[in-house]
Write a structure and sequence with these properties.
alpha/beta, Collagenase (Catalytic Domain), 4-stranded mixed sheet, 5 helices, about 50% helix
């Protein structure tokens, strides 16, 4: 089950059913199943606080994923900064919705096992994001 929350933002996500069905398809294509995933939309200051407290990083980011997966069952918390997603959409010349979907699937791909610490990992992550985005209908 995928649940959606907001913290320190008035943002309300309206595509819950579509997104949940899409993420199930993404998981299935990777040989995984959706367990308990919480997607928490928040502000830059809220996510910065999480980044400092739990990861020891003192910078803004678009998403932080906490992985609670067991075997092929995907479970975790995805904290997404609506502020940074909006800024990144403008920077990359895309719509807010497209950037938000990319960030959401990025978090799920982390739960699946993709990483982005090296250039090769980042390229594989981007390719997986692009494949996943083609499943969004």
């Amino acid at each position: 089950m995928i649940r959606y929350f907001s913290e320190d933002t008035t943002f309300l996500y309206k595509c819950k059913r579509l997104t949940s069905n899409w993420l199930k398809k993404v998981a299935e294509q990777e040989g995984k199943r959706i367990g308990q995933i919480s997607i928490i939309f928040c502000s830059d200051p809220y996510l910065l606080g999480i980044n400092r407290k739990y990861l020891g990083h003192d910078y803004y980011t678009d998403i932080i994923s906490f992985d609670y997966c067991e075997g092929n069952l995907l479970s975790g918390d995805l904290f997404i900064s609506i502020d940074t997603v909006r800024d990144n959409a403008a920077f990359y010349g895309t719509t807010f919705e497209n950037e938000l979907h990319r960030v959401i699937v990025h978090g799920v791909l982390h739960l699946i096992g993709y990483d982005d610490h090296s250039d090769a990992d980042t390229a594989a992550m981007r390719a997986a994001e692009d494949r996943a985005l083609t499943l969004l209908v």
